[in-house]
């Protein structure tokens, strides 16, 4: 079954429950992505796992996504540019947030947070991506799929920890990567790159303490190595330099 056929099977199986059914097929990849509402997610996932024509027995991963500033033109680069550093120091559209900044919603009309599921069918040898949005930006909630795929346990805890996505029905939804008492969700785009607090060992108190972050906010722009010859020395210039020497 190729991706076009898989897309058609999904359309025939779920009908109006699919909010989108997108096929990408080129020299690099061939994949299908579907989107479903959170209220339909469990029924759709159960069918994806159990239907003979689908049989997605394995959950590969669950990723959280913050779609604020999605596809912002500031970082859309198809070729090298001589304005890379100024673009980093003086952002034009806010795609990279400074300390205290709030994200603006480039993609208006849809929720900010989504959980993205990557599924694998060992029986039928195909893969699928499923996107489920949390309908509330303040408290994004999607159903837990632990009852269908037990491996979702830590994936859901990670998405909760880093993005603040709540998985309804998860038996032990708590942080998995950040420290005890951590405030905020570090993969959200309004979370500053330098964080809010830092920790250190205090010699007087003989324990680890937290304090406001002391790092000066700054932009780090990576060095770009260009091999297009723009900085190669011209032969006449090289000859002149040898003569002067």
In short:
The chain is of the alpha/beta class and 245 residues long. 20% of the residues lie in helices and 24% in strands.
Features:
245 residues, alpha/beta, 5 helices, 5-stranded mixed sheet, single chain, two-stranded parallel ribbon, 24% strand, 20% helix
Main sheet overview: 5 strands, mixed
- Mean of all residue-level pLDDT scores: 82
Parts with pLDDT < 50 across at least 5 consecutive residues: none
One letter per element, helices H and strands E, the order comes to: HEEHEHEEEHEEEH
The main sheet orders its strands as: 1-2-5-4-3
Alpha-carbon Rg, integer: 24 Å
User: Termini separation (Å)?
Assistant: 70 Å
The coarse silhouette is: extended
SSE arrangement:
Blueprint: H1 3-14, E1 18-25, E2 30-36, H2 41-50, E3 58-66, H3 84-89, E4 113-121, E5 126-133, E6 141-143, H4 152-163, E7 166-168, E8 197-202, E9 207-212, H5 235-244
Parallel strand pairs: 2-5, 6-7
Antiparallel strand pairs: 1-2, 3-4, 4-5, 8-9
Account of the protein in words:
With 245 residues, the chain is an alpha/beta fold. 20% of the residues lie in helices and 24% in strands. It has 5 helices and 9 strands. The chain has helices at residues 3-14, 41-50, 84-89, 152-163, 235-244; strands spanning 18-25, 30-36, 58-66, 113-121, 126-133, 141-143, 166-168, 197-202, 207-212. The protein has a 5-stranded mixed sheet with strand order 1-2-5-4-3. Strands 6-7 form a two-stranded parallel ribbon. The longest helix is centred in the first third of the chain and has 12 residues, at 3-14. The relative contact order is 0.13. The mean pLDDT is 82.
């Amino acid at each position: 079954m190729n991706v076009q056929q898989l897309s058609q099977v999904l359309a025939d199986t779920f009908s109006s429950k699919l909010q989108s059914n997108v096929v990408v097929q080129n020299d690099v990849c061939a994949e299908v992505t579907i989107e479903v509402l959170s209220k339909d997610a469990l029924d759709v996932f159960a069918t994806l796992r159990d239907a003979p024509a689908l049989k997605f027995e394995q959950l590969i991963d669950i990723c959280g996504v913050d779609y604020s500033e999605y596809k912002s033109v500031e970082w859309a680069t198809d070729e090298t540019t001589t304005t890379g550093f100024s673009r980093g120091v003086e952002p034009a559209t806010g795609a990279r947030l400074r300390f205290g900044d709030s994200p603006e919603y480039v993609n208006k009309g849809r929720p900010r947070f989504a959980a993205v599921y990557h599924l694998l069918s060992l029986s039928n040898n195909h893969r699928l991506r499923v996107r489920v949005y949390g309908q509330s930006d303040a408290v994004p909630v999607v159903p837990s799929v632990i009852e269908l795929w037990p491996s979702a346990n830590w994936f859901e805890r990670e998405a909760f920890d880093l993005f603040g996505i709540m998985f309804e029905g998860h038996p032990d939804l708590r942080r998995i990567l950040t420290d005890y008492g951590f405030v905020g969700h570090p993969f959200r785009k309004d979370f500053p790159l330098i964080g809010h607090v830092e920790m250190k060992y205090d010699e007087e108190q003989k324990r680890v303490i937290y304090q406001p972050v002391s790092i000066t906010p700054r932009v780090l722009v990576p060095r770009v190595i260009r091999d297009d010859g723009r900085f190669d020395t011209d032969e006449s210039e090289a000859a002149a330099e040898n003569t002067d020497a």
